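Quick one, probably user error.
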């Protein structure tokens, strides 16, 4: 084998795999009314934004909890972020409770027992984001 051919094969084998094309999701296309997860304490509107992304390795969702609704306590298997867009809520992590309002973020850790409850007169709208154990296979 010639040196030039060997070099060409080596470069081809070590070339980075191109990134997939970006995916743009309109939240209007993924909006769904459903019970709140982890205990079904009330109703919510869910925008499962990242569900529309093939090959993803994290979740990015918007959820709006109706008055009195709560994502019930559950133990995390990963770090998770709650970012409040509007309304007021009370987040709990391992028995510690904190009030959250628009512009506030709760960073929750792997292994913690967590939940969040809507408080006040307006629905609680938040972004929930967390990593997945691996990439979701494209459909």
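Nope, works fine. Designed sequence:
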């Amino acid at each position: 084998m010639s040196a030039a051919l060997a070099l060409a094969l080596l470069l081809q084998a070590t070339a980075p795999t191109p990134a997939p094309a970006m995916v743009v999701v309109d939240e209007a296309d993924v909006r769904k009314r459903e019970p709140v997860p982890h205990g079904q304490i009330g109703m919510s509107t869910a925008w499962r934004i990242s569900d529309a992304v093939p090959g993803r390795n994290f979740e990015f969702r918007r959820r709006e909890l109706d008055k009195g609704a709560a994502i019930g306590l559950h133990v995390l298997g990963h770090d998770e972020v709650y970012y409040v867009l509007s309304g007021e809520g009370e987040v709990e992590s391992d028995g510690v409770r904190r009030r959250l309002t628009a512009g506030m973020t709760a960073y929750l850790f792997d292994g913690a027992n967590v939940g969040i409850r809507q408080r006040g007169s307006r629905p609680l709208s938040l972004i929930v984001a967390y990593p997945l154990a691996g990439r979701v296979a494209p459909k």
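The chain has one domain: 28-131.
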